[in-house]
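Continuing from the previous page...

OK, I double-checked the sequence for DUF4177 domain-containing protein against my notes and this is the correct one:
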Amino acid sequence: MSYEYTVLPAPLRAEKAPGAKTPTDRYALAVAAELNRMAREGWEYVRADVLPSEERSGLTGRTTIYHNLLVFRRPLAVREAPEAARPMPEYPVTASPAQRPQATPPLPEAASPLPAASAPRVEPATDAEQDAVPPAPRTPPER
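Thanks. Re-ran it with the corrected sequence; updated structure tokens here:
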């Protein structure tokens, strides 16, 4: 299964809360509130990490600072296949039922083919006709 991940900074300080007397208790409530908020959005808590980050200090100096991060994940949503990848039905859903084959209607006299006996006979071209050069294209008369 594939997952997508998100990483959030852990709370830096906690608000006062009833029943939480020590700073550690208040901090634990702040972290629990963040975990519950992300769980409502479908994220599963994975772990907390402390990672270094080099940051500028003054004009030319650099300092390494450590960040507390909370890592969450959730399963990737299964995306539907694009239209082209889906198999097409053999017959469209909106197709009408099949009809019986119809008899071929008789052709009118003018469109009917010539009988074989009265058809003009085409003779094969002779060698002289095959080698003939076509006439030059016509040009309009000059004015």
